[in-house]
Amino acid sequence: MAKAIWNNTILAESDQTIVIEGNHYFPPSAVKWDYFVKSETHTTCPWKGEASYYTIVVNGQSNPDAAWYYPNPKEAARQIKDYVAFWRGVRVEA
């Protein structure tokens, strides 16, 4: 079971994450969406495609662009479509 935790709050929890390049990608059904706000930030990975980001808000504190996902991944990364990964201080315990 993998858990994503920030500000003493579990943001996502699943035993069906997909690990790519050391990052756990959580299925959308495992994410606690109340803590997520869409961001305007986008980045591009040469083999996964364009990533979109979420800002995480817990107990009035914001962690900008601390989660990302691929809404329209390239073919090589199709298995992580809409799955969410974390960084910027979000602890992932596996």
TrEMBL record:
It holds the Pfam family NTP_transf_9. Residues 3-88 form the DUF427 domain. InterPro entries: DUF427, DUF427_sf. This is DUF427 domain-containing protein.
